[in-house]
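WARN no homologs supplied; continuing
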Amino acid sequence: MKKRQAIVSVLLTLFILITDQWIKVAVKTGMYMYERIHVTDWFYILFTENKGMAFGLELMDKYLLTSFRVFAVGFLAWYITRHIRRGIEWGFLICLVSILAGAAGNIIDCLFYGLIFNNPPAPMVAEFVPWGTGYETFMQGRVVDMFYFPLVEWNWPSWIPYIGGNHFVFFSPIFNFADACISCGVIALLLFYHKKFQG
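OK structure emitted
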């Protein structure tokens, strides 16, 4: 059981990392910045990059943020390994591994993308460059995002104070596969395993 869980954890981590990086590299080398592909009226592939956390949030210095991410992933890897040895529910394990792999996927962007990609102006697309000759230094790379789901859009009536006349989009964040894995893992933990973190 422990061996099987360890193998599944490694395989799931590799699957998430490879899928995430494949999508990001395909978008970065195949689309120019802010180019969008219309899939449906409520789903677009929209190439953007951000320096911050999930969904483009920017809450702290980039070096500090990347260092925190690396520490958090290391701690989570230790936590998962420890619980596999002691016994862990499959669902709980999958949630933790999804969060771990998603965070690691975004760390790869931060650590290395600035070193290996150039940053040409639109409509040119990025290309791989010799190591260390990219658009930024180590730990300063930008995270590639591409999934955009403007599920509902409308304009507020002009008579409403403060927001009148403004355009509103329900669910405007642009995110990537790694963000989705982190979010799904966290939501599942909160819904089904919150008691494990109480007292």
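The mean pLDDT is 90.
OK
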